[in-house]
Each structure stands twice: as structure tokens, then as C-alpha cells.
Amino acid sequence: MNTEQKLALVTGASKGIGAAIAQELARSGFAIWLNYRSDHTAAAAVRDKIENDGGRCRLLPFDVTDMHQTEQALRPLLEAQVPYAVVNNAGITRDTLLAMMAEQQWNDVINSHLGGFFNVTRTVLAQMMRKRQGRIVNIVSTSGQTGVAGQTNYCAAKAGVIGATRALAVEVARRNILVNAVAPGFIATEMTAAIDEEQIAAKVPLGRAGSVEDVAWMVDYLCSEKARYITGQVFSVNGGVYMG
Ligand code: NAP
């Protein structure tokens, strides 16, 4: 085993943006710890693609909303190896107007984005700090930067993660750990499959939804040596749909 190879933990990587991030980071030379929750077939297919391209990938199915599961999955592995990069990407939407929102719809969304960020990051952070190096990239959303009707839960969760990104960036900067967020706009994945393409085209200045690679390239950059002086920032990958 090449002990020099850098390791990246990517959550929610069985499909969509997370899968593209895992593949892009593998292309850049990272070994991958690929987290997901339930879709074993899709996750195995992503692992196979990475391995067929000559990369290394370990599947880590656990629910990021559950601190116990998160620690059980990661702690034994952390004794042998510590990720250089952690990409907090796992998440869900449960859209509805606030007046009709069930408590569970609120809690599920807050727990997946904000809870997931906390559970995963806290589990790995102490060892990363000991190593005095690392990158944390949180996948947020245009919805965390502006208001979207029907998404008070999701907007609150993503705005919360933006705040956490900035605070943590200050906390760990002297340990040479850089913490940034990437805010995608409309990206073609399962999450946005229900949204009409023409509706997206009409809203986005670049006239189309983005691809998962558009987001993955930004994350790959933030995990690279070229981004060594960048921390506490939010990078929009949104085709101009929001210019904040
Ligand atoms: P997606 O295609 O629905 O994929 C979501 C991934 O997250 C899946 O791998 C899923 O695993 C995993 N996941 C969900 N809950 C989890 C949990 N509790 N524990 C572990 N894994 C969990 O979503 P996506 O569109 O790629 O979105 C990825 C991220 O980008 C999310 O944070 C989302 O909010 C953000 N984002 C997306 C868009 C967009 O337009 N698509 C825009 C802005 C931001 P299983 O399927 O295996 O259960």
C-alpha cells in the first residue's frame, strides 16, 4: 500500500454530485472513502468506475445523521489513516411551504445537512488537526444564499452550514486546515429531476442546468495545492442564477 497517497472522504457519493466529486478526486490521485446511505448498487458502480480507472475506493455505508453510526464506521479506520480532504455532500430535500411542513420534514432536512456536517466533521477533525493539514469542503446551495419558497428547511440548513464553514475556517486555520463551501445552483441529478428543464433554462443566465462535473471541478480545485491560501469562502457554481 502506498502510504503517501492522500485520502478523501466524500459523503453522499453513491450518485449525483458526490459520485462525480469522488471520481474527480480519484483522478487527481486521492484514495476515496465513499460514504452513502442506502443505494448499494449505485455505490458499488461508482467504486468500480474508480477502480477501473486505476484508483482506490472503499465503500462506507452509514447514515450521516446518526453520530453513533458515523463514529462506528470511521473511528476504526481513522486509527490507520486520516483523510486529507473531507467533502460534506450528503443531503436531502423535503420541500413544502412552511405552513404545511411536518415536524419530520423540518428535522430530516436540518439533520441531514447540518447534523451530517457536525457528525462527520467532528469525528475526523481531531486527527486532522494532529496532522496539521487538510481540506474540508461543504456542499451548500444557492438556496442557502437566497430565499426559495417551499424550502425554509433546506435554506435554513444550507445557510447554517455556510455559517459553520466560516466559523470552523477560523478555528482550524492555524492547523493548516482550510474550510470552504461550494454552492451549486440547478445541477442535473436525482434531486432536481422533478424540475422542468425549460423552467431552469428560463431562470439561469447561462440558459441551462449545470452538470455534476461543474461542481466536482471546483471541489477538486479546493482540495488541490493551488487553493492553499483560500479559506472560509463560499464558491457559487450556478450559471449566474444568483450573484451575491
Ligand atoms: P442526490 O443525487 O439525491 O444524491 C444524494 C446522495 O446523498 C446519495 O448518495 C445519498 O445516498 C446520500 N445521502 C442522503 N442522505 C444521506 C444520509 N443521511 N447519510 C448518508 N448519505 C446520504 O443529490 P445531489 O443532487 O447529488 O446533491 C448532493 C448535494 O448537493 C446535497 O447536499 C444537495 O443539497 C446539494 N445541492 C444539489 C443541487 C442540485 O441541483 N442537485 C443544488 C445545490 C446543492 P443513497 O442514495 O445511497 O441513500
Give me a quick take on this structure:
With 244 residues, the protein is an alpha/beta fold. It has helices spanning 16-27, 40-52, 67-78, 103-131, 152-172, 197-203, 212-222, and strands at residues 7-10, 31-36, 57-61, 85-88, 134-139, 177-184, 234-237. The protein is built from 7 helices and 7 strands, in the order βαβαβαβαβαβααβ.
Topology, pairings included?
Layout: E1 7-10, H1 16-27, E2 31-36, H2 40-52, E3 57-61, H3 67-78, E4 85-88, H4 103-131, E5 134-139, H5 152-172, E6 177-184, H6 197-203, H7 212-222, E7 234-237
Helix pairs in contact: 1-2, 1-7, 3-4, 4-5
The structure holds NADP nicotinamide-adenine-dinucleotide phosphate.
The site of NADP nicotinamide-adenine-dinucleotide phosphate has 30 residues, from helix 1 and strand 2.
3D structure, described in words:
The protein is 43% helix and 15% strand. Helix 1 packs across helix 7. A seven-stranded parallel beta sheet has the order 3-2-1-4-5-6-7, sandwiched between helices. The N and C termini lie far apart (45 Å). The chain has 244 residues and is of the alpha/beta class. Strand 2 (31-36), helix 2 and strand 3 (57-61) form a beta-alpha-beta unit. The structure holds NADP nicotinamide-adenine-dinucleotide phosphate. NADP nicotinamide-adenine-dinucleotide phosphate binds next to helix 1 and strand 2.
